[in-house]
Amino acid sequence: MRIEIDIPADLFDGQFRAEDFAARVREFAVLELIRARRLHEHDAARILGRERWELAALMERAGIVPTEKQFDEIKGELDRLVAACGARRSRPES
Predict the structure, then answer these.
(1) Separation between Cα atoms, residue 56 and residue 21, nearest integer Å
(2) Which of 21, 41, 20 is nearest to 30 (CA)?
(3) Contact call for residues 31 and 62 (beta carbons, < 8 A)
């Protein structure tokens, strides 16, 4: 898909290049597709030509929790619940 944005050319110069701006807009669009759950992270990394860890850093800066981090949080929560259940079962009844 190709999207065109009508922006005055005089906004860009050597310090703020149109090519750099276009790359950032593309990156933003891909991140928003991830946020909307329309694009998988591995596909996004491929589209942007980034390593997985680079995409994860971009996602975190954009306020999107990478999948691995979500799984780690869920696993940590499950581990705490299992430990709490085990501790409760090992206590003598009053």
Answers:
(1) 21
(2) 41
(3) yes
Question: In which region does residue 26 sit, left (phi positive, over 0), alpha (psi from -120 to 50) or beta (all else)?
Answer: alpha
The Cα–Cα gap between 62 and 72 comes to: 19
Which string of DSSP letters, residue by residue, matches the chain? Answer: --------GGG--SSS-HHHHHHHHHHHHHHHHHHTTSS-HHHHHHHHT--HHHHHHHHHHTT---HHHHHHHHHHHHHHHHHHHHHHHHSPP-
- pLDDT tens column, 31-72: 999 999 999 999 999 999 999 999 999 999 999 999 887 777
Whose CA is closest to 32, among 22, 42, 20, 44?
Answer: 44
Q: What angle do CA 14, 19, 25 make, to 5 degrees?
A: 125
